[in-house]
Amino acid sequence: xxxxxxxxxxxxxxxxxxxxxxxxxxxxxxxxxxxxxxxxxxxxxxxxxxxxxxxxxxxxxxxxxxxxxxxxxxxxxxxxxxxxxxxxxxxxxxxxxxxxxxxxxxxxxxxxxxxxxxxxxxxxxxxxxxxxxxxxxxxxxxxxxxxxxxxxxxxxxxxxxxxxxxxxxxxxxxxxxxxxxxxxxxxxxxxxxxxxxxxxxxxxxxxxxxxxxxxxxxxxxxxxxxxxxxxxxxxxxxxxxxxxxxxxxxxxxxxxxxxxxxxxxxxxxxxxxxxxxxxxxxxxxxxxxxxxxxxxxxxxxxxxxxxxxxxxxxxxxxxxxxxxxxxxxxx
Length: 331
Ligand SMILES: Cc1cc2nc3c(=O)[nH]c(=O)nc-3n(C[C@H](O)[C@H](O)[C@H](O)COP(=O)(O)O)c2cc1C
Ligand SMILES: CCCCC(=O)C(=O)O
Hints:
Number of helices: 12
InterPro entries: Aldolase_TIM, Alpha-hydoxy_acid_DH_FMN, FMN-dep_DH, FMN_HAD, FMN_hydac_DH_AS
GO cellular component, one term: cytoplasm
Number of strands: 10
GO molecular function, one term: FMN binding
Oligomer: single chain
Keywords: Flavoprotein, FMN, Oxidoreductase
Binding site for glyoxylate: 116, 231, 234
Bound molecules: flavin mononucleotide, 2-Ketohexanoic acid
């Protein structure tokens, strides 16, 4: 892990209510997948190419993955995260504690809207219109959550509601006045993806793909991209590390749409490994929350800056290009 990220996590742990720290840090079940997401990177090595004789560009293929409830981390919540982007894309959660229009207004980079499809499609449509009117550039439908994950740390703390004064603001006054809960439903299907495509011209990504046949289905349903993700180990605690699931999805998609990855990315080297295995970009979840809790927008900026600097350094050391033949197992 990049030491700056470790330092920011230490600082976040010191300032956060332990219940909120554990909400951010925790995973589902025995937290096997949570640990595996990071461990998977340590099992791989990169074989650099040399003497390629080229300067590298400044492209930084990183997005901020959608995470809920930023006001639990910092009083400015998602506004602080949005201010820190300087060109990086923020995927803003349905469960943000700031309305999406305010997130976009504060943003210094593109904002995409992460959508939990609501079984009442009138509610889903109202969310989509809200995201469109706010100026979001894409929708990211989270597909790995037919039901809430069971997070033992939250259950042990009895944490199931936001404290008074905080709410999932995007869920206010949709269809009718008042605040709705975010529903997760096993009835959500590819048919909803088709309906969303008819409903909006925004590019539609699907997040939470692990099985190559689902990647194939996603392409068949006309998505603009897929995100290989296990929700940071917060849903099914039986799945592979997202890095280990990546190559089969990349093969199934075969270049037809971009394939992003999130889960366990903690250094510039991790970004390079994911790209070498075929990811077009990576998403960062918890480290952004640690930066936010430690130091608001400055902390988030620091996370992005150290990852950018480290990634470009690793890329230079690798000869400026990354491909699957450069990845080997450590023995
Ligand atoms: C506290 C927390 C809240 C999250 N909330 C959402 C969410 O609202 N929507 C979503 O699609 N994913 C959510 N995720 C999953 C992240 O988008 C992402 O897949 C995961 O955090 C990536 O792993 P990382 O934290 O190891 O970088 C959440 C993750 C965390 C840690
Ligand atoms: C309704 C909030 C969902 C947040 C989430 O996706 C998570 O905590 O992993």
